[in-house]
Amino acid sequence: MKISKYILKAANTLVSYVVILSLCIAGVYAGYALWDNNRVYATVDDAQVDILKLKSKIGQDQRPSFDELLAITPDVVGWVTLDNTNIDYPVLQGETNLSYINTNIYGEFSLAGSIFLDSRNDRNFEDNYSLLYGHSMSNGRMFGDINLYKEEDFFKENQTGTLLVPDKVYKLKVYATLVVPSSEDEIFNPTLWQDGIEGLIKYADNNALYLNNAAIENTNGSVDKELQILAFTTCSYEFTDARTVVLAVMEPVNL
After folding, report:
1. How far does CA 63 lie from the centroid of its chain?
2. Nearest one of 200, 197, 130 to 163, comparing CA atoms
3. What pLDDT shows up at residue 234?
4. Beta-strand relationship, 76-82 and 88-92
């Protein structure tokens, strides 16, 4: 009997030690995960501070000059801003759509990646439809604030932005917000709209959460056939592989 009690006591002690050890390991892992997560976001913030210093040298009241950004990498193709959001980033374009998914503007590995233009698009933004990608990160970092446009009030009150490209400026007018699967060709295959975007406009009319029809109408109230559309896309969580998409009309500014 005494031996049985001793064995039982030893077993209980062993179990307690195992539980405590497991909790300690879990605590250490949670602490590491938190530290690593904060480090990732700090890296994004630090890089953004450095890059924003260069934005002031691009100039918006004259033809933009990207000389300093292009000295960092020739893959810089523009700078995009959506007013009243944290979206204020250089745009890059790699050889494939994997080139900058986890690489920053300095060519360094970064989980946050970069904002990048679809590799099938014209780097000078001459296409009828151009597609931008960015990760959805907390506190609105990268394209995290794209998800704000799923709120109707925000969509209605925030519909402007700017796209700077070498030697050209576009004013942006937000036209539509959608939530679509990542396999949706109408959004994620920009080659579909090389000959015109009437089909894209029809698709948005049928599938958008919200529409700002004034953005696509000409002075006569009909749809402007010469429109250029810029799409912003990022991860969403309504269903597996969901993506939030914001479509904006590109209006060239005479310089």
Report:
1. 26
2. 130
3. 97
4. antiparallel
